[in-house]
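Quick question, first post here. What does this chain look like in 3D?
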Amino acid sequence: MLMLGFAGFLGLLKILLMGLAAFGLADAAFRREDAFRAAGKQNKVFWLIILGITLVVSYLFSVLAMLPIAGAVASIVYLVDVRPAVKQISGGGGRRSGGSSSDGPYGPYNGGR
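> Answer (accepted):
Ran it through. Tokens below.
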């Protein structure tokens, strides 16, 4: 019974690692190529290949093998380091710094005054 619980835990961990790789792959696919170069974080094709290999390896091998662990590290590096830098360069950081929620495309909205 203990081994069944451990196998279930490893299955959940495998799904989590595959989810990280799939999210990173989808995110990298929709980012602009020039944002990767501007952020100085390799290039888009490099990250697409690395994250694609990570997704396949985490599907094919056990979580306790060396390749899925290396893939997990690559996914975490992309999500923690590369994604925020590329997102900031491409302007996907949410709210603009120094702006107000009442700002329009040509400046602040003052209610028709």
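The mean pLDDT is 84.
Helices lie at 2-30, 33-39, 44-60, 66-89.
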